[in-house]
Amino acid sequence: MVNNQLSTTLQAIQDYAVAYHVPIMENQGIGELIELLKVQQPEKILEIGAAIGFSAIKMTEALPTSTVDTVERDDSRYQKALEFIAQSGFGERIRIFHADALELSLDVLKPEYDAIFIDAAKGQYERFFDKYEALLAKGGIIYCDNMAMHGLSDIPLSEVPRRKRTMIRNLATFKEHMLNDPRYDTELLSSGDGIMICRKK
Ligand code: SAH
Ligand code: MG
After folding, report:
1. Is 42 left (phi over 0), alpha (psi -120 to 50) or beta?
2. pTM of the predicted model, to two decimals?
3. Is residue 84's pLDDT more than 90?
4. Residue 117 CA: which ligand 1 atom is closest?
5. What's the total number of domains in the chain?
6. Most informative mutation of 73, 97, 129, 131 for ligand 1 (most atoms within 8 A of CB)
7. Which residue in 53, 109, 133, 191 has a CA-CA distance of 20 to 30 Å to 100?
8. Cβ < 6 Å from ligand 1: which residues?
9. Which of 48, 76, 149 has most ligand 1 atoms within 8 Å of CB, for mutation?
10. Which has the closest alpha carbon to 144: 29, 22, 38, 10?
11. Over 90: is that where the pLDDT of 132 sits?
């Protein structure tokens, strides 16, 4: 019964994402993220960028004893996420905050998270990281999606559409910083759209 309700919800989310062009994770990316989380077994997860709740629900499904806090700034996506989370049956384990993650007060969140998943505005990753690493437990992991920017991070900047250049430049700088940050063990995976894993030493 519960499983049925869950798979119906996940299908409805995927259909909605296609119909309304919501960039939720694709199968390979979410599959890889979930494998990594199953190894890590984080108890508390924080997500930046809920969209309509897909990845939050998938993480909650994969980790039966974990809780997920997630943040979404867009009004209609937030409303849809609320509906889908309620429908999924995971309302008790997922909290969603309607806010710009760069403005949200850390006080409303938990004091510590074992895993933080960054999947919001790509040009702002470093700012999300710098703000939310304050909540990362020792030995905790920050995962970042879309590090490959659908191939744009691999081509010369002059060939990247102008309006995307700042975002690509910011992402490249952030990647460099993380690879050189002695406080973290950082690894880049090519799965999905590129996942960066930063493990706090
Ligand atoms: N993690 C989701 C997909 C997220 S798409 C999934 O795979 O199911 C990225 C989302 O981040 C968008 O819905 C966008 O509105 C949101 N976002 C972008 N910048 C944000 C910010 N500063 N604060 C909160 N949400 C943000
Ligand atoms: Mg993404």
Report:
1. beta
2. 0.96
3. yes
4. 1
5. 1
6. 73
7. 191
8. 23-25, 49, 51, 54-55, 71-74, 77, 100-102, 119-121
9. 48
10. 29
11. yes
On whether the CB atoms of residues 123 and 96 are closer than 8 A, the answer is: no
The parent domain of residue 106 ranges over 3-200
Q: Is the dihedral of CA 73, 115, 132, 90 positive or negative?
A: positive
Question: Which amino acid type is present at position 140?
Answer: G
- Who surrounds ion ligand 2 at CB < 5 A? 119, 145-146
H/E stretch holding 70: strand 67-72
In the structure, what pLDDT confidence band is assigned to residue 21 with cuts at 50, 70 and 90? very high
CATH code, domain carrying 21? 3.40.50.150
24-83 residue pLDDT tens: 999 999 999 999 999 999 999 999 999 999 999 999 999 999 999 999 999 999 999 999
Q: Do the Cβ atoms of 69 and 48 come closer than 8 Å?
A: no
Taking the centre of ligand 1 as the mean of its atom positions, its distance from the CA of residue 1, in whole angstroms, is 30
**Quick one: 196 exposed, middle or buried, by C-beta within 10 A (0-12, 13-18, 19+)?**
buried
Angle between the N-to-C axes of helices 54-62 and 2-20, in degrees from 0 to 180, rounded to the nearest 10: 150
Looking at residue 149, its pLDDT comes to: 85
